[in-house]
Amino acid sequence: MSEYTTRDEQAKFSKSLLHELIQLALPNTYKNFTWSTIEGDKSGTVDNVIRLSDEADAEERQYQLMLQNIGSSGVVSVDFRYEENPFLFTNDETWLGYVSNVDRYKHAIYIQPDCMMSCMDTLTQELDFYYSDPVSEKLIVHKVAAGLPRVSKYEEVYHRVYIKENHFLKCVITYVDLDMTEEVQVNKVQFKYLLKYFAALPALAIPCRLADIEYKLNNHEMTLETYKELNDLRQTGPFYIEPCKTSNGALLVKLYDVDESCFNDIIVGKGLAEVEDCSLTSKSTGSSDAKPSLNKWEDNSRINRHLQDLKVIFEFSSNCKSSSHPFHVTPSNLQQIVDRQKIKSYFDLGCADGTITAGIGDYLGLSKENIFGGDVYEEQNEQITHVKINEKQSTIDLPSDRVDLITSFVTFHHIDQLESTLSELVRILRPGGYLIVREHDCKNEHALRVKYLNFIHAIMMIAKVGEFANSSSNHNTKNENASHEDYENNTNTWLTQKSFIIEYTYSINSLSNMC
After folding, report:
1. Where do runs of H (alpha helix) occur along 374-446?
2. 363-391, pLDDT tens digit by residue?
3. For the whole model, what pTM was predicted?
4. For 86-90+108-198, CATH number?
5. Closest CA to 113 of 213, 244, 228, 243
6. Would you put residue 469 in left (φ > 0), alpha (ψ -120 to 50) or beta?
7. How many CB atoms lie under 10 A from the CB of residue 6?
8. What are phi and psi of 410, to 5 degrees?
């Protein structure tokens, strides 16, 4: 097709009349036409040659348009966190899913809902489409840091990842849509910045544990035999997932295959696990199994209670309630209490054995190197970083401005140098950070009740139950707390124990007089 115009007309109008008409008539296919001109040397005419682009040209334009659309979304902010999968909180209906991974260290399995598999396929294709193109070279990360979302390859396919830990030459990363964690050499893995275009979907894998069973462990890990058996069984999916409840960031489930065989029962039947017994009355008095069951029940109860109450603060809304009392907030029009996304490191003052500290750190998505716990005891918990506390000098062995969140659960009433301890907490807390304190109500009318609680606390320490169940070896180390040291060195006499209980009970005085 050609159109005849003069050079003067061409100079006067940037587009010919036919050019304009085609654009108006065919707005959706207008870009599929190419335009060229042929000028007559003697006649002074200009021929506008219009032709339909071939298929390859159209595909290339579509390709470039998609690249531009994805790239224009921009890089996610440094405080971005992947949203949790909504199926994690679905406890009332059975759904179909695939087991994507087994973690022998966390005793967990990771499940992808069947209804989200098409999302997974699309996400994987689009990630590979964009990040395999040279245009993504500008997104290469040159300095690896922990706590940030990125994109990287697994088995030559691009996936969304989260860098959990960074140790200079090595780092620990989690592929969030597979929920698979591995340690990699920094110089052998390439990371690229995550674009907002790929950030809308929640993490597609859900952390789960098999309900009502306890694995037989080897050095706190799932045995290799159990791990292999679970991996073999997961290949037979999909499974019908029967959710029971959400606990400590994981969904407790029962898995059934198409023949209605229960995955949980198969593991028990093969002798790789035992049916969990949380009953406090099923064991006879004095049974050697009764104390471990009671301790486990107490530990889980304490962790869940603290986590639920903290979630009320972190996920605040006006109609939230804590586990035991209505949650009152002043001022009443407050929209947010804590910005969870800003918390990159955390310190727990009075962490005891560190189980609650580890649970809170896991809920916040923090790595071990950013979860700190301090107590006058020297406990060992591999999930947290222990910090030395000098009770007499009120010092905490952390740099200034090191943490974004400090918690202290029913600890302040044991502190003699309260003002200097608070000053030390202010020192290690970053500007804009948060201090969350839970303490007895020490008003005069509650003083007797609080003394009673302190009395019970002292009895628990002597009996070694609850948070003190595993502390038998920890007090043998040098302890700054004279009361505990005297007690541990003289446990052979009831008189010394009784004196310790009285002294410990009276330790509430200094704080109750301040309130």
Report:
1. 418-428
2. 888 999 999 999 876 667 888 999 988 87
3. 0.46
4. 2.30.30.140
5. 243
6. alpha
7. 13
8. 50, 55
